Backbone:
């Protein structure tokens, strides 16, 4: 790999926001954070890997839940300070078992729930 | 409006990341930042308004360029610490005059440009 993850721009904590989008539906699934090593691992393994700010550890998405994200395309923005991972998502992306973390809208001043948790067949 | 923007979770600088997605194509256009007042203004005016970290000022998207974002739906994620604005975008979203800021991919270790600047008919 010639691409150097260090050429992206990280914040003062060494992190860059990463948006995950479903490669088929275009649905935005979640937003989490990566550091340069998580970017490198994601590109090298094809398994989307974030940096967990709460656990201060690598977070290979789906490692415990099975809800993995297979990398389809890796993109970044004009300022090189935000990543977009286009993914094939197994199962729900959200820890609430909803397809996407963005399941709440504000409409006419009220919070509206847009989707219900998926029933896990397992 | 009953929804209180202060119920979202902002970082230590009082900011929350906001992803803009085109309401028709599903394309992810850009990512920028809002503070609670920018959230309030966005909801009240229907014109997407960010907080410019470089200028330390409100940034009514398109105010100078004309490339405005009309709010179609306002959503936030399960942790209440990331916003998704679904928008009707006039013209290109990116300051480089590309439709989206995410015009660069990393493929087989190389940076690949996915889209060219739009020609402004004006």
Residues:
């Amino acid at each position: 790999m010639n691409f150097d993850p260090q050429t992206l721009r990280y914040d003062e904590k060494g992190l860059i926001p990463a948006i995950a989008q479903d490669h088929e539906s275009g649905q935005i699934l979640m937003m989490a954070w990566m550091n340069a090593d998580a970017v490198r691992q994601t590109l090298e393994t094809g398994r989307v890997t974030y940096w967990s700010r709460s656990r201060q550890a690598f977070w290979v998405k789906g490692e415990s839940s099975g809800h993995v994200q297979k990398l389809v395309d890796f993109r970044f923005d004009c300022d090189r300070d935000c990543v977009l991972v286009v993914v094939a998502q197994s199962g729900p992306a959200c820890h609430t078992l909803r397809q996407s973390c963005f399941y709440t809208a504000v409409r006419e001043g009220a919070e509206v729930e847009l989707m219900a948790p998926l029933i896990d067949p397992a």
Observations:
- Chain A touches chain B through 37 residues (CB under 8 Å).
- Residues 5-113 of chain A form a domain with the Ubiquitin-like (UB roll) fold (CATH 3.10.20.810).
- The helical segments of chain A are 36-45.
